[in-house]
Write a structure and sequence with these properties.
single chain, 4-stranded antiparallel beta sheet, binds 2-oxoglutaric acid, binds fe (ii) ion, 7-stranded antiparallel beta sheet, 6 helices
């Protein structure tokens, strides 16, 4: 499928992303709730093309599983192994990188479109957004087969942009607690209660074609294990506030299995 104009990818009638009032409404939602979900943001034919590309590229995905703390920090010897700072959760997924995404993919057209980037700036308050300097990190597609999950974590980045491509029949629920921590309060007790199952998180409903903006640096979140034989497929669009930034070599090695 050849997609060159943005209106073949985004439903611009329902979502006039270049309209200042619309963008302000989106920003207010993101600011108050920590998340913005735009259902059916992607037009059906473009979503079909993205799903076909994701399916065709699956055999090139790098699958890995990691144990990590919810804070994504190394073991802290000041605390015990069972302390919230050190307790380990598991994340297991597959990933294909930007260099696998086709030049004519609707994902790339969307990622590169100035109108879309301006909308993301309007929503997040960022003044400039740039692609990654490395060849792998700007557009990724994540895969989760049966049993695979993303463990509880706080993001390192201020916000994330995702696009659900395919949804399993069961499991793979996006769960979160808004502002469980703040920049100056790790809230170990709150994290312990969640990991012990004493706190019930909120669930975010999303269907294929939805655009999701999520502020995850203080809002803990996870994607529960896929409980079906339909693979969860999700595109992640990543920008930087500064030009010329590469994802760290250690992160590329860990998540992509290669540096370039
Ligand atoms: O898979 C998702 O919906 C969320 C992904 C996520 O939280 C992350 O990549 O940090
Ligand atoms: Fe995350």
């Amino acid at each position: 499928m050849k997609t060159t104009t943005l209106d073949t990818i985004i439903d611009l009638t329902r979502y006039p992303i270049d309209d200042a009032d619309f963008a302000q409404t989106c920003r207010a939602t993101l600011d108050t709730t920590g998340v913005l979900v735009l259902p059916n943001f992607i037009q059906a034919p473009a979503l079909d093309a993205i799903r076909a590309e994701a399916e065709q590229s699956l055999d090139q995905a790098y699958f890995c599983a990691q144990n990590h703390s919810v804070y994504l920090t190394p073991h802290n010897p000041a605390f015990s192994k069972d302390h919230a700072a050190n307790r380990e959760v598991v994340s297991s997924k597959g990933c294909i990188c930007d260099d696998i995404i086709a030049a004519n993919s609707p994902l790339r057209a969307l990622y590169d479109a100035e109108m879309f980037r301006d909308f993301i700036k309007d929503c997040t308050g960022e003044t400039s957004l740039h692609p990654y300097a490395d060849t792998l990190s700007s557009i990724n597609i994540h895969y989760a087969h049966r049993g695979q999950e993303l463990g509880w974590h706080f993001d390192n980045s201020a916000f994330a942009i995702t696009l659900l491509i395919q949804k399993p029949e069961a499991g793979s629920q996006f769960e979160y607690i808004k502002d469980l921590r703040s920049s100056d309060n790790m809230n170990y007790d709150g994290v312990t209660a969640l990991l012990d199952g004493a706190t019930i998180p909120q669930t975010l409903d999303m269907d294929p074609g939805a655009l999701v903006l999520f502020r995850g640096s203080n809002s803990i979140h996870r994607v529960s294990p896929n409980e079906s034989d339909t693979t969860r497929m999700l595109a992640v669009l990543a920008y930087n506030a500064q030009p010329g930034v590469s994802l760290s070599e250690s992160a590329r090695k860990t998540f992509y299995g290669r540096l370039s």
